[in-house]
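task queued by scheduler; priority normal; single chain, no ligands, no partner chains; default sampling; output format set to C-alpha cells
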Amino acid sequence: MTTHHHGHHHEDMLSVEKARQQILREFEPLDAETFPISDSVGLVIAENVRSGISIPTLDNSAMDGYAVRSQDVTAASQDNTVNLEVIETIAAGSLPTKPIEPGKASRIMTGAPIPDLADAVIPFEETTEEDFLGTADIKEIGIKMAASPGTNIRIKGKDIEKNELVIEKGHIITPATVGVLASMGMSHVKTIRKPVISILSTGNELLSPGEELSDGKIYDSNSSSIVASVMLLGAIPKYVGIAKDDMDSVRDKLAEAMDSDLIISSAGVSKGDYDMVKDVMSEHGDLQFWSVRMRPAKPLAFGILNKSSRKAVPLIGLPGNPVSSLVAFEQFCRPAIQKMMGKTNLERPIIKAVLKDSIENYDGRRVYARVVVTKTETGFVAETTGNQDSNILTSMLKANGLAICPEDEHGKNPGDIVSVVMIDD
C-alpha cells in the first residue's frame, strides 16, 4: 500500500453520482440488429412490432366437444337429451368441410376452427359421448345442456388483431415476449445489439487461472469475474488477457481491445501505480484518473480512446483489488452497459433492512458493505459477510446486497435501518 493517498482532501473526490453521471453522459444505445427470437431474451426491442395476422386466426373451439347451433339445443338439459346428427369430426389443424344445418352437429377438437353456421360448442362431458367411446364413427349425439351464442368459442383476433401494435419499441424481451413473437409467426426480431466489452488486466504479478503458480505471483481473478458480470448482463465479453507492466505490452493489449464498444481494464489506476499504464492509455485519448468518495473502489479511471476518430472507444479503469473491481463494476460499468443495450432503468433495486452487526466508516467515504439480506416475518435483515477488506474476495461470495453507510456518518450499529443495493440477479 503506498502512502500517496494521505493528505488528500475530500474536495478532490468525486461523489459516486457525479462519477456515474460523467461516465453515462458518454454512452448511448447502440444500433439495432436482427436477432433470432430464441436468442433475444433480455434484449430491447428496437421498433414497434405490429402483427401481420389475427390471433386466433379463425374462430376456434375452446373445448373438445360438439359444434352446434345454439337455437337447436335451447331445450337441452340433464333430464332432457336433444339428439343431433353428427356430420363430421374436425381435428385441430384441419378445416371443417360442412356447414351446420339445423339438427346437425360436428364433433370438434380444442383449437379446431368452428364450422359455418355453428355458434356454440358443447363439451363432451355434457353429451352422451361416453356411451359411444370405442365407437369410431358416431352417427348421433345426445346434447345435455343449453348454450348461448359464443359458448366455448375463441373469437378470431381476440388475443391480437391484425395490424395491432403488440409490442412497443423499448420493451425488454421476456420469455412471454418470445412466445408472443412466435405466435405471430416471427422467427426474428429487431433489437438493440449486444455490446462487445473488452476486458483486460495489467500487472507483472498476474497469472491466468490454470497456469502453474510461482512465488510472488497471484491469479488474476478480476478478469474472470468481470467476464461473468458482462455475460450476466447479456453483453458479449471479449477477454483480451493480461498486459505486463511495460509500454509495448499495454499498447498491444489496448490495440486488441479497440475493436469493441467498451474497454474495462482492471488495476493500474490508483495513485501509486506505475504511471506507464496511464501514459500508454493517455496516448490514445484523454484519460481522467478520479478518486471517488466510496469504499471500496476509490480509484477509477475513465476516458474515451481515439476520441477524434470514427472508432472512439470508452475505457473504464477499475481498481485492482478484486472486491473493489466488482463494486466499481456494479456502480459504473453495469449502468453504462445497460444504457448501451437501450435499457432505461439503470438502477438496482434498493431496499431497507435492519442491520444485524456494525459498519465502520473511518474516513468520510460512502461505504458499500457486502451483506447477506434475508427476509423475516418483520421485514428484511442484513448481515455483513465477515472481513470487509477490499482484498477479501470471499466477502463477495455470499453477498446478495451492498449496504450503504453514507459519507457523513461514522458508522452503522446493530439495529440501525440501512439502505441496501440488491446485487443478486
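post-processing summary
- The chain has four domains: 10-30+194-340, 33-55+169-192, 60-154, 350-422.
- The chain is about 20% helix and 30% strand.
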